[in-house]
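Running this now, will post back.
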Amino acid sequence: MTDALGEAGAGWPDRRSPDQPLPNTLAEVRQQIDSLDSELIALISKRARLAERVAEIKQLSNESQTSFYRPEREAQVLSRVRERNPGPLSGDTMVWLFREIMSACLALEQPLSVACLGPSGTFSEQAALRAFGHGAQLVLEPGIPEVFRAVAAGSVDFGVVPVENSTEGSVSQTLDALAFGATGGALYGAWVPGEVRICGELSLKIDQQLMARQDARDVRPQRIVSHAQSLAQCREWLDVHYPGVERIAVQSNSEAARLAAESPSIMAIGPTLAAEQHGLDIVAANIQDSAFNTTRFVVIGRDTVPPSGADKTSLVLSVNNMPGALSRLLAPLAEAGIDVMRIESRPARERAWEYVFFIDFEGHADDERIRAALTKMQPFCSSLRILGSYPRAVMSASSPNAAGGSIMGGVVS
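Update: finished.
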């Protein structure tokens, strides 16, 4: 998705105005559109052939499979696309288009396999498609721990998991998996902390829909089912509109839609995609309590990511039991002018009433000022581990829906 671009990002013309005057008649407009479409097809095909050549060169040079996808290079290219976009398409739309082109080209080099929470129709699936484009091969797992296991075992290249929501806070399963790893026999698989790293992030605007079978949309349900996070994000709306109706948490929103499709006594909450896939009607749209309901996802992999120039670093650490330890711990970051974006505590599994802290801050662990700050922090920590340094999100949470739909509003001309 990155080397497939070649070095075309360098030396791009900075076109802030049209190359020629706009045509005056509809026939002339259509003629220019047809001509431009032909040029686009030729250029994209040429780009795809270069992607195939990249794969040939890498195979001859025995480069490792992981070098086919470079998150830091992708972030640089997409940031440049946004900066040089003259309009009228939005920056997010242009980034989305380029990501899909890059995804298709990468699939010619080495298709990526990406694990996320399934079954099909979940917000996690939408996030994975936004992160990697439709050229990626998605592997839908039954739970978040299974996504981590697939990445750690090397059965997939990457995973996409939710880490925090603007309404309900952090996703504990993801934080625990990052901090503590997992134990398990051969049947379930296991990984140790550090085997899986954060190598990217993205945010997704979460719009929750209430859905039911067509023959049940006007009937008061006996149960409303959804993922626990979705139920929590719609708590106030449900209290007003469906007081007393039993709410049941299930493994995923797609599973909730499947249950609603099987029974007229059940309504489900989830994304529009889940309703479409299971043939359900939308009973009420956008029922989330917050209009700005957003979930942050992280991309997980097995390798470290080089600096992109616009990075974020995530740590997990435990603090020595001494007065003022946490404030002393954070002081080196403040002294270096490093912006701390998030700090959160979680219970430590090994010891009751002790906690580990998750910290996100700007910069890359290879940056000199970051290395110096981490060195100064060490004396105040009983443990400190870098979960990953990775490019900051390029697309906004409300950027075009990667799961489907026309970003052009259906206009073909």
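DSSP finds twelve helices and 15 strands in the chain. More later if anyone needs it.
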